[in-house]
Amino acid sequence: MQVPEPASISLPPSLNLDLTLTESDAIQCIEAQLFATTRELTLEEIAGGVGLPDLDYVRILIGKLMLLYKSRGGALMVRETLSGAYIMSPRDEVMPFVEDFTQGDLLDIAELRTLALIAYEQPMAKKDLKKRRSGSAPHVKKLAKLGFITIETRDGKDEWLSTTSKFADYFNLSPDPVDIKELLGVFLVVPETEE
Questions:
Q1: Lowest CB count within 10 Å: 14, 69, 87, 174, which one?
Q2: C-alpha 61 chain-centroid distance
Q3: What is the structure's pLDDT at 105?
Q4: Stated pTM of the model
Q5: Is pLDDT of 42 > 70?
Q6: Is the CB of residue 124 less than 8 Å from the CB of residue 139?
């Protein structure tokens, strides 16, 4: 049985279809994009998804969406990350009420300690981390899988650990390792070894 070719449709020129988005429609599309993903989206990704080439205009629309969420006083917010991307997330005030529902994404205290030590010492030799935090190997695997750290092999043998821009964005920190060390130095007492 042969399937017939689809008929081509040509619209009469008198049918003036305007497929452009209104400002309200564009803001709703941006909102839907941010809602549909758990990662941050760059300005370019958002603009491409909405089909608007003018990045300055898209930035204005995102600003309006941010103000809309702020004025609503609801549980969600749209924020710009330090890398200039955008993400929708629960407001800080409601995080204690949603943490139990996001357990797969959160780090336990031991993993956070490992991440803090890597962030403080970066770049940190993996062997030094192992000496200072025994049992950290599964943490390193999980942190790398989540995109919070990179593992770089130098000289063909030693592995070095550093934080990523995703780490900085997630924790709303500067991506500069010097700034991270300075901030963590205020809040942390970094042990030399852990029993």
A1: 14
A2: 20
A3: 54
A4: 0.50
A5: yes
A6: no
| 94-106 pLDDT per residue, tens | 877 876 665 555 6
Strand residue runs (E) in 11-116 = 76-80, 86-90
Q: Is 41 helix (H, G, I), strand (E, B) or coil?
A: strand
Given the structure tokens 């991270």, which residue do they identify? 180
Name the residue with tokens 């305007």. 18
**β-bridge mates for residue 77, sequence order:** 89
- The conformation of residue 178, written as its DSSP 8-state character, comes to H
Q: For residue 2, what pLDDT band results from cuts at 50, 70 and 90? A: low
Read off the tokens for 161. 């650990």
> Does domain 23-98 correspond to CATH entry 1.10.10.10?
yes
Are 23-98 and 106-187 the same fold in CATH?
yes
Q: Which residue in the block uniquely carries the two structure tokens 């901030």?
A: 183
Does 134 have pLDDT greater than 90?
Answer: no
pLDDT confidence tier of residue 161, bands split at 50, 70 and 90 = very high
Residues 133 and 113: beta-carbon distance below 8 Å: yes
CB under 8 Å to 81, separation ≥6 — which residues? 40, 87, 169, 172
